[in-house]
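sorry to bug you again but im stuck and you know this stuff better than me. theres a chain ive been looking at and ive put its sequence and its fold in token form underneath. id like you to explain what the token line says about the fold, in plain words if possible. anything you notice is useful, everything is just below.
___
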Amino acid sequence: MTDPAPAALAASPDPSLTHGGSRGALTLGALGVVFGDIGTSPLYALQATLDPRYHLSTTITDLYGIVSLIFWGFVFVVTVKYVFIVMRCDNKGEGGSLALYALIHRQLGEKAPKRWLLIGALFATALFFADAMLTPAISVISAVEGLGVVSSAFKPWIVWIALAILIGLFAIQRRGTEKVGRLFGPVMLIYFATIAAMGISHIVQAPEVLFALNPLWAVSYFTAHPLFAFLSLGAIVYAFTGTEALYADMGHFGRVPITLAWLGICLPALMLNYMGQAAMLLQHPEFIDNPFFHMAPTNLTIPLLVIATFATIIASQAVISGAFSVTQQAIQLGFLPRLRILHTSSHARGQIYVPAINWALAVMVAVLVISFQASAAMLPAYGLAVVGTMLITTLMQYVVVFRIWRSPRWQAVIGFITFVTIDAVLLASGFAKLFEGAWFPILVGLVIFTLLTTWSTGRRLMREGLLADSLPLAVFIQSTAASVHRVRGTAVFLSASPEVLPAALLHNLKHNQVLHERVVLLTVQVEDVPQVNPARRASFHAEGHGFYRAILHYGFMEDPDIPRDLAEACTGTDLTFEPLHTSYFLSRQKLIASCAIPGMALWRERLFAWMLKVSESAMDFFKLPTNRVVELGSQLRI
């Protein structure tokens, strides 16, 4: 039985071909945006594994065992699972937990798993935001800590230097992923060449370290001290941090450029550096305090520090870009209120900037740096966020493998057991550090999960309340429309449902006692695909007496522009939307939290009311002309 995955995804062209620019340029851009996080793991991963709490040492068994586990983790977790399987589960070129959730629902419909799939997707999204807070803080401060190797006089300034660098990083986000990637790509290429050369320089002095790639060394490592080897997995996982960014950032560059960058540049350079660190520690165990920076000759420490600092800045870029993508998906799928989203590329839809998320992350990163003061103190929290997201992605991924691709069952079962076991063991090891900082991503995840589910549930209850008090359109036209005074022009009333009368129309009629000669009831529908075919953008239906029902369709990665799309859809028809003769009517609902209707606790109703105010502050979401918008308000209890 052949693998049906290619056929299942045949409708999705290679994303890299739709992003503009050559594949080589996109590969270099992906190197600068996607791989900064996982690429800078040599700065702290091996050092963290040899922490005294694990009672490990610089013996051949321990060093070879650690390097072997890192290598086979790269093979199974990063290469096989993410690059070869998860990244093929794209939703029309877009990646991330919510895109995977939308893909499953689009393919399976009512047969898709319900509750656990949604909960898993939302909690994975919440953990990714926790990762987006931790990665910049840990990555940058770990590089700046290299100043302590140069001179102890720098130590009091490490936190403030790291903060200055991070603020500068968040300040340049408005320039866009494309421009940032173009700037960072060559820097990361130099960085990977540097760490590979550092590794080779020590491997040639102890070439036997190449035997560490043999998986039997991992077995010997666990045999020598099972408990501490298990606990050390919570530190070994730091080598894989940033893996989820490969999937979340796929919409920025495409699957093929990311794959080429990983297999051709990142993986070889990382393994050469890890093996070089092990070879150096066998000969110089006194360098265990900071093996990465001790790999370089003393006169090259400062240049290495500069390169590593730039690389950690880029590491932060990977999760920041991913956070923007995930935020837009959550908004379009109805799990977050509308926020201002800026497209930073004229040809790549996936390249966006979300100011509110950018500066919220900046504040949280600053709080983490000031609170924890050192990268080692933040690492326990880091690993748990990464592995938690990985495990949920694995479970969702195998819904695609079993139910959509319909891969041979024996292959799918073997893969499922393998990847779930790996993720579960790593997660269990991370939970052992719960009180050392691993509580942070759980807390952040629960807070963001609450926000996501509160907004989704609140919107549903609000729609149900509005529908209960609404009037069917056909009844209104027959009873009222023919007898009301009509004025020139076109009125567009935004409505949650095309079947009922929007509250704004009733309020306008009550207070002004007129109707426009053309009344359009407009519903905007966001579908669970990234982009909608322009031919399917708009549909119109005449209801008589100058009333029309209109529906605009958008993908969850698109940026709605209602005036433009209405004008384009009506070209050549009698219905026109001239800017000076078209008014847009919005209904503002003032929510009053109460216990009158079951569905949410009172505190969540109040939280939803606050989130609704946030949403109303971003009314440029639909690009409506502010001088032609009329807002009419009413009160609603939920």
Summary: The two ends are 53 Å apart (CA to CA). Residues 301-332 form the longest helix (32 residues). Strands lie at 342-343, 352-353, 486-494, 515-527, 538-544, 547-555, 582-592, 629-637. The CA atoms of residues 83 and 572 lie 47 Å apart.
